[in-house]
Structure formats: C-alpha cells, structure tokens
Amino acid sequence: MDDDDNDDEAALGAPGPAGGDTVIHTRALTKRYRGGQLAVDGLDLAVPAGSVFGFLGPNGSGKTTTIRMLMGLIEPTSGTARVLGHPMPRASRAVLPHVGALIEGPALYGFLSGRDNLLRYDAADPTADPRTRRARVAEALERVGLTAAAAKKARAYSLGMKQRLGLAAALLQPRRLLVLDEPTNGLDPQGMREIRVLVRELAAEGTTVFLSSHLLDEIEQVCTHAAVMARGRLLTQGPVADLAARARGRLTVTTPDTADAARVLKEQGVADVVVTEDRVTGEPADRELSALNAALVTAGVRVRGFGVERASLEDAFVALTGEGFDVAG
Ligand SMILES: Nc1ncnc2c1ncn2[C@@H]1O[C@H](COP(=O)(O)OP(=O)(O)OP(=O)(O)O)[C@@H](O)[C@H]1O
C-alpha cells in the first residue's frame, strides 16, 4: 500500500487522484481469461458522480467481467480500475463498504425468510452496526416493497421479489455507489417498472447508480449517461441525449406522390427507402436536408410533411456498429 493511494477508509471522503467527479474510472482495463478469451479489451470508462450510468451491450460483450473487476472480485490482466478514487482490487476493503452491489443474482438462503436473509447478510458485514441492524433491515424491506412478504421463506419468492431482496441487501447501509448487473433480467414488465422507479429514487437522493443491461429502451428510460460495449470493446460513452443525437434519425416525407418521392430520395442517396401509405421514410446520407427537400419540390412532389425523427439509442448503436442490437446475444 503506498501513500499515494490513501487506502484507509477515512480518506474515502476526499476525492482520489482521478478527481472527485468520477466515481468509476478505468484506464486500458483488460481481461483475458485463462482459456485465452479476451473478454474486456482496453476499456477507458468514466462514470460521473450523480449519474445513472447505463452499461449497455449484448450478452457476452464483457459487462459482467468489467463489473467483477470493478468490484475487486477478479484481477485485471492489465490496465487499472479506480472506484471512488481508489485502485481496485487493492483498496477493496476501504471502497466496498461504500458500494452496494447486485451481481449475477442475489445469493439467498431459500430456507430463511426474506427478513432473516437480510439480518444474516448484515451480520456478515464487519462494518455494519449490530445495534441498528433490525431497523436498517426493516427500512430496506420497506424501500423495496417487501415488508408484507418479509416473514415468507425466500424460496417462495418470485424472481422479481428475489431481485428486490437482493437490492434491499445492497441498501442496508447508505451507499455512494450502487452497481447493479442486469437488475431487471428475467423480470416481468411490472417488476421492471418497480426497479426503474427505485433506481430513479436512489439517484434523486444522490447515489450514483451503475447498471448493466442488454435492453436499449431500459437505458433510455432511466439513465442519464451510457457506455456501449460490443465484443469487449467500448464503442462510445457519454450523456444518453448526446449519444442519440450523434446518430441521425429516419427521414420521413409525407406526400400523396409516394412513388415519385421514393425515386427522388433514392437518386439523392437516401438509403433504405420504405413507402407506407402517404409516407416515405429512409436513412438520409450526410448531406443537407434542405437540399433533399428542394430536390423533391423541383421534381413536382407535393411535400406535406418533411422531417427527421429524433434518433434513438438504437439508431446510435446501429450507426456505430453497422449492425442491429441483437438482444438475444
Ligand atoms: N470465467 C470465464 N472464463 C472464460 N471465459 C469467460 C468467463 N467468463 C466470461 N467469459 C467470456 O468472456 C466474454 C464476456 O463475458 P461477460 O459475461 O463479461 O459478458 P456480458 O456482457 O456480461 O454478458 P452476459 O450478459 O451474458 O453476462 C464472453 O465471451 C464469455 O464467454
């Protein structure tokens, strides 16, 4: 342990060398598994304090491996990871009490009630105060909506309830950072909504939330920032609004002269032209939209509507990779 890293807990209040505004900071973080699989390849990640940060990528793109390195569960092959300003895994002991994590589903004892699972979990945490244990457990159960089911055995819980119990475990103490690996995986729409509401509440209280997902719309709904992974590499990161804005949305022309409009748009280099009733849509090339409009008018097309839809994160992903976002992985 060297002086530079201030690994003792007291120092965690102060910003680390990476700066106080970044709660997760990695540089060229790389993991090659023993079998030779390059799971994470030169990752430079910067998660701003106070953000709800979506870590997005298809199954197998390296999200879980990254999270396990961030939490000090596995060693990187090369590169560095800092969490709350301190190096991982070296500063795990000082950092982890400030981090609530839900990784690869909660480890629960089916024969214990939800409440007893949390009591037991808290008792295993040397930083937890036993005097406040029961009150903190009750509060966490309330927070995730499990108070009524607290006395039920965990094995009788639905998947959504188990996931919420896992979240409650992460919330037994105030946290500066929450790391959630696919928190809505396997949940029904209602369960997903509940988790989203909870994430928003936690963020509103100032907790930075880092959550991985393979669902684009989920990231768009809850996240302020996102990073997009594919095949172990980072494609892009930044505020969600900027990521989407970087991609151009689809051009939509409303006209009674759809056949002529489609022909003119194709001549002008618009790709993927699709005609539906009184609309022609397509992917505009990198040229002035006003020139496209002028070409339509010059060709005698009666243009009743002309515009570009707001680009979605999916548009951005497709633009980045040249391929669709394959949810099934
Ligand atoms: N323990 C391991 N040993 C060898 N290879 C592994 C190991 N764990 C993961 N991998 C491989 O590393 C790559 C990245 O996996 P990882 O689980 O990090 O991706 P992911 O984006 O989290 O996907 P998922 O959502 O399916 O977990 C995959 O090709 C996977 O097969």
TrEMBL record:
Residues 1-10 have a biased composition (Acidic residues). Residues 24-256 form the ABC transporter domain. Residues 1-21 are annotated as: Disordered. One of its GO terms (molecular function) is ATP binding. The keyword ATP-binding applies. This is ABC transporter ATP-binding protein. PANTHER family: ABC TRANSPORTER, ATP-BINDING PROTEIN. InterPro entries: AAA+_ATPase, ABC_transporter-like_ATP-bd, ABC_transporter-like_CS, P-loop_NTPase. Keywords: ATP-binding, Nucleotide-binding, Transport. The keyword Cell membrane does not apply.
